[in-house]
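Q: How would the structure tokens look for this protein?
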Amino acid sequence: MDIEDIVGRGPVANRDAKDIKIRTRKQLPKAAEEAANVDSMVPGVGQKVWVRTWGCSHNTSDSEYMAGLLHKAGYDVLKEGENADVWVLNSCTVKTPSEQQANNLVVQGQEQGKKIIMAGCVSQAAPSEPWLQNVSIVGVKQIDRIVEVVEETLKGNKVRLLTRNRPDALLSLPKMRKNELIEVLSISTGCLNNCTYCKTKMARGDLVSYPLEDLVEQARAAFHDEGVKELWLTSEDLGAWGRDINLVLPDLLNALVKVIPDGCMMRLGMTNPPYILDHLEEIAEILNNPKVYAFLHIPVQSASDAVLTDMKREYSRRHFEQIADYMIENVPNIYIATDMILAFPTETLEDFEESMELVRKYKFPSLFINQYYPRSGTPAARLKKIDTVEARKRTAAMSELFRSYTRFTEDRIGEIHNVLVTEIAADKIHGVGHNKSYEQILVPLEHCKMGEWIEVRITSVTKFSMISTPTSLPRDDVNFLPWKNSPYWMFFYPMTLFMLVLFSLYYYDRFVSPGFLETWLPFLVNSDTDDFHHE
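A: Here is the predicted structure in token form.
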């Protein structure tokens, strides 16, 4: 059962000063010395915390709140864990690999003497896991108490705050954004579904929507008071927002659009098919708004109705296609992303082929391919697994299909786009921006500013993005040349200069001063020919 506010004491307990005998420093046992040092600490002063995040943008938002609270309390929040005193690990329970990564990091941190606090869905859904017994835990509805947990953990105590029987954290809590230009706004927690493979419901619980007025005020403050340029809406299921408070998603979206300033954008997060089927026209109208990215993430998970039924997804392939077809027809150049779960226990080869057919039909530019992993405590985990070799074969086949096509074809070179640049690319020489369709476009860093729009011309394409140069530069500018960012570009200038010199000498010898080359550069002239010398 969940434990609220119970402090688990380790083998070295803190004691009141009256319980500690006064001794000379040489006589003070190590354990008592550590306890005395801990009790004398001023929380936050000189102490460093690292917050590591796995999973969805909802987890990202939670981490930003925890980092903001810790920063306000005086802690240094670091980007890397090496020099941190405390590691706050915000975990994801969707996939086994991400949970295993968190497990490995707990072991690594303990070996390095770090204080460990586990947050997120893993700790909430499975707090009794053996590898979580020697760490502090903060539940998904307790993130506003992270400062208390860090303070107690630094004292050597193990804290477990897991109850969900309390209100969600306030949207107005201090926040330290991963990207200062992007507000990640959680519009609800939990969901209405009971998918047989998913463990997130065990962590986040049933749907609880934040009030419309609170969400609009948070967005307004982020844009107008804090200078963000993008608003990302997130939740376990965006489309379900409002169902518990007698509202629907279009109500919220229409209210949010009114507070988006000129030059700023909003992006919708993941929404399951059932909850937007009744609002296709309204959603399309929102996506066509110039301040909203024409982007939609609709996870289909499988194109087989039989598998969808076994997953308890509450929609059919026809429902998904109805949404996709309507949006493609009514939202110009819309960008549709989706997810697939392959090798679900009841998936046959015929079921798998149906999913492959759906990918061939729509050629999704973003396709998140997930091999099924059984999650303990879920109904699907009790089913017989598909052979691992076969599961990997199916995953590889769909991955190969995904690599075989691209949205960014060669015929798009030369297109003109307006791009909002919000971050620096991994190569450190480009800014990352997006156009109205949320297509990723790279712009040379020397020609763009973070948080500003720029008009660009596409110069080359890759599988996942387009590379561009500003239209303000002439087309023959070196930035337009495909080898600009190639290691071979350094040979272009000397070779060009060399060819110009040769041509100039030839021209001078032939038309200005015949015999010049033979006189001054005889090694360039073949005496058996008259190619360079004409009387």
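The longest strand covers residues 416-424.

The first helix runs from residue 30 to 39.

Upvote if useful.
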